[in-house]
Amino acid sequence: MTVDEVLQIVQARVPRLSFVNELILQKSWEGQTYTHMAEELHYEAAYLKKVAAELWQLLSEIFGEPITKLNVRAVLEARSITQQQNQLLEELEGTEPQALTASSSDSTFKFPGGPMSLESSLYIPRPPVETLACQEMSAPGSLVRIKAPRMMGKSSLLIRMLTHAEEQGYRSVSLDCQHLSNGTLENPDQFLRWFCANISLQLELDPKLDEYWDDEIGSSMSCSRYLKQYVLAQRVPPIVLVLNEVDRLFEHGLVSRCFLPLLRSWHEEAKRVELMQKLRLVLVYSTEVYIPLNTVQSPFNVGVPLKLPSFDLEQSQRLALGYGLDWAKGDNGAKRLIPLQELTGGHPYLTQLAFYSLKRGTVDLADLLETAPTLSGIYSDHLRYYLAILQDLPDLMDALKQVVTTEQSVTLAPSFAYKLESMGLVKLQGNQVVPSCTLYRLYFRSQLP
After folding, report:
1. Residue 389 exposed, middle or buried by CB count within 10 Å (0-12, 13-18, 19+)
2. Which of 53, 112, 283, 323 is 20 to 30 Å from 213 at the Cα level?
3. 171 sits in which H/E element
4. How many angstroms separate the most distant Cα atoms in the chain?
């Protein structure tokens, strides 16, 4: 059995196997260590180990015996490829794609967190965001900017955008900046080579960086040359390039000032160069850019900005009914939901966790509302996560304390305001800052020293 045959079998069971999973399987098959993979792929080794653990569990379930990084090749090569493929194909024959994922009834009881599948009955659209995102992404040379804090639904929206792209016959490349090594983020040349190499790998092109890289013209020009003369020059359909967690770049000035103007220049060039119209950029981030960038170089003041809003009361009600909470029906049901709406501010994850808990019967609505901002409430893990971050950042903790201990909006230094907004803890109202929901005001008012 070859690694390609293993991938074929796995992808039959899991059509959206991530690109990183594929790389880990291929590199493990070749006998590489996680450290070697991290150096070659420029991801954190700890992140690769975490993803790999899920991969080995998945392979163990598919093949019916324990599989680890150490034995993956020996175990699978010992099996009969013909028998294994035939067995799996017989199981899958005639099975609709949605049967391979959790049914709507199963997903109702799945603990909230992570992106919503296309088949999920619990996905609540937030018009016109979805329609605009897909329409703008389809425009030649487009640049779409998606901004929202953690767990607001960015990944779920991306799934729908990339599915639309596939339906249009486009190719897609998704790069996550969150898991880049610090070494790569401190070196613009190394970062741009990582960028080009990963685009090539996801498009199944041989990376030919050395043929296009020229020290005399510099990394930025070499990167543009590689993209135009090699990647886009291929006879391929339009390419949707998703850059996720772009915020990570803001903390690394050299890379930011090198790479972000490149994105802007490619978008501007598409207005006059037909080849560049094949590139559609999607930038996903949580906060405003607070590094100094010339206004004519920044990609954050061009293209189409989309901000994922919180749920309004009607959308929260639809989600409650999706969980089968019949008491939320009609006008009376909407009135019963108002205190919860005020508590969560319509935050998608906080709202979903409430309905999940109510559906399971582990708490009733009155108790949920009373205990929510305490360590015994359903949000305790979520709240402690942010508290731990703030305890390591005393200046940011002091800034949040100013916000939650007054009933009026306050003014903060822009860097503090943007960082707290990126965490989803505050909302910006012009130059003023207020807590994003009552839950955060009550909890942090009592917990911050």
Report:
1. middle
2. 283
3. strand 171-176
4. 71
**Residue 417, φ and ψ in degrees, nearest 5:** -60, -45
Q: Which of 176, 151, 173 is nearest to 161 (CA)?
A: 173
pLDDT tier, 105 (very low <50, low <70, confident <90, very high otherwise): very low
Least confident stretch, 20-29, 101-110, 245-254:
101-110
With b for 16 or more beta-carbon neighbours within 10 A and e for fewer, the 334-352 pattern comes to bebbeebbebbbbbbbbbb
Q: How many C-beta atoms lie closer than 10 Å to residue 73's C-beta?
A: 19
Helix, coil or strand: residue 427? strand
- 125 CB contacts (<8 Å, ≥6 apart)? none
Give the whole-number percent of the chain exceeding pLDDT 90. Answer: 64
Residue type at position 219: S
Tell me the CATH architecture of domain 129-307: 3-Layer(aba) Sandwich (3.40)
Q: How far apart are CA 205 and CA 234, in angstroms?
A: 9
Gap between the Cα atoms of 126 and 177, Å rounded: 26
Pairing of strands 279-285, 239-244: parallel
Written out in words, the top-level CATH class of the domain with range 381-447 is mainly alpha
User: Across the strands, what pairs with 426?
Assistant: 435
Half-sphere exposure (Cβ direction) of 395: Cα atoms closer than 13 Å: 6
What token pair was written down for 250? 């803001």
Same fold flag, 129-307 and 381-447? no
Q: How far apart are CA 213 and CA 221, in angstroms?
A: 9
Token readout for 30 is 């070749």
Q: How far is CA 339 from CA 154, 368, 373, in A?
A: 26, 11, 13
- Residue identified by tokens 């899991």 is 14
Burial class, 49, CB count within 10 angstroms (exposed 0-12 / middle 13-18 / buried 19+): middle
Asked if residues 371 and 377 have their Cβ atoms less than 8 Å apart, the reply is yes
Cα–Cα dist 80/225, whole Å: 46
Residue 281 tokens read as 């950029």
Q: Return all residues near 111 (Cβ < 8 A) that are at least 6 apart.
A: 356
3-state secondary structure of 376: coil
**pLDDT band, residue 19 (cuts 50/70/90):** confident
Token pair recorded at residue 386: 């942010």
Is residue 4 scored above 80 in pLDDT? no
- Paired tokens of 343: 């508590």
- Give the bridge partners for 145, in sequence order: 283, 305
What secondary structure letter does DSSP report for 299?
G
| Domain ranges, ordered by start, for the chain | 3-100, 129-307, 381-447
